[in-house]
Amino acid sequence: METSAVVSQSTIENRRDERYVFCQRAQLEVDGVIYPIRTLDVSRSGFGIISQAPVSNGGQCTIGFTALIGNQITRLKFSCVTSYCILQGLTGYRIGLSITHADPAMRASLRVLIEQCAALIKTG
Length: 124
Description:
By secondary structure, the protein is an alpha+beta fold. The protein contains two helices and six strands; from the N terminus they run H-E-E-E-E-E-E-H. The longest helix is centred in the C-terminal third of the chain and has 20 residues, at 104-123. The protein is globular.
């Protein structure tokens, strides 16, 4: 992972899709190195994550995690590009990932995951 760049507030405000809280342990693969991360939120177009290491804006990466989709534990994996990376606190980085590729099965699982997250807001 490389040094981070500051993102403008307009980048965060101009999101394409509604985001839903989704806190999950995950892995981020960058240049063949796997980093433990935590997801913060999810949308149809990407993820918000926290990492202890920065990534360069525009960098290619892969996010992978296991989630309960319907009533089945499913391994999900998405190719992404880094939208922004900003220092958060003293030891972490808030990173935005935009999905660049996911096969149809992954896209379908993502839709179900988002529906599940949205339902928690309505019932919570």
